Here is the input.
Amino acid sequence: MTRVHDAVRRSSERLASAGSDAPVLEARILVEKALDRPRVWVYQHGEATLDRDQLRRLEGLVERRQDGEPLAYILGSREFYGRTFQVDPRVLVPRQDTETLVVLALAFTREVGMVCSRPGDDRPLRIVDVGTGSGILGISMALELPAARVVLSDRSPEALAVARLNCQQHGVGRRVSLVQGDLLSWMAGPVDLIVANLPYVPSQEIDRLQPEVRREPRVALDGGPDGLDLYRRLFAEAPALLDARGAIFVEIGEAQGVAAGGLAREHFPGSRVAVHPDLEGRDRVVAVTPRRE
Ligand SMILES: C[S@@+](CC[C@H](N)C(=O)[O-])C[C@H]1O[C@@H](n2cnc3c(N)ncnc32)[C@H](O)[C@@H]1O
Here is the structure.
């Protein structure tokens, strides 16, 4: 007979020896998944026993994790900006650091009064999330700005299928549309806000990433020789499409602040370009906003 607390202990020992950074937490989450129980159920039910089917399920989950599969893929979901999003191997696992971009972009819309439409304008705020993956950025913006119209775009149809599931889950269907395409090549008209977390890992570094990260789609990681190929192209395409009062917020790697900020300045000489840190103080977001009078 295996009790819940024994199952957590044994699973955590196996996860620890497989190199997990948080073996007890992960073991608890996997036990809850195997038993189909809500989060923190384990704390109140340590003496409960697992039946044979539950043990078999747990065994399968722990093996997948030991084998380096990201926890989010095993669970099928990840929290982002206070909400749950579906994820699977077709998309990048959302990172907490990416919340920095949402915070900054929302602060900008508030600062310049973009929350609804602008004075004298009766059209909604137009936002594009380029390289949307699971849709976390665009859907979070749509939920925080109920008057906005958002386009989620990605070159990967597989990723867009996951984004579509998340649109349904969060009930943003009417205000959010999906477009398959390369960066902004599909766009005709002006846009108020571009948000993007495009691939920015330098190609030669991909093989040195943790095995877990290498399970994520290469198209979501590979940013070319210096990691900035996609942003070089995005910054070149964006000036023709961005409203004069519009802004761009993109996520970058911690070592790319100077180079990515320089690229943005080249293409937006009349705008304010700032590099913002994440909560750990590492360069994380390049913001291009209109210069104040
Ligand atoms: C780093 S992932 C980010 C996903 C999501 N925005 C997030 O923050 O979790 C980058 C995404 O960009 C997409 N992508 C890569 N190259 C692209 C391109 N040329 N045009 C549009 N999307 C692209 C990938 O398919 C992937 O979904």
Summary: The chain has two domains: 2-67, 89-290. The chain has a mean pLDDT of 94. The pocket of S-adenosylmethionine is lined by residues 91-92, 94, 98, 130-134, 136-137, 154-156, 159, 182-183, 197-199, 219-220, 230 (CB under 6 Å).
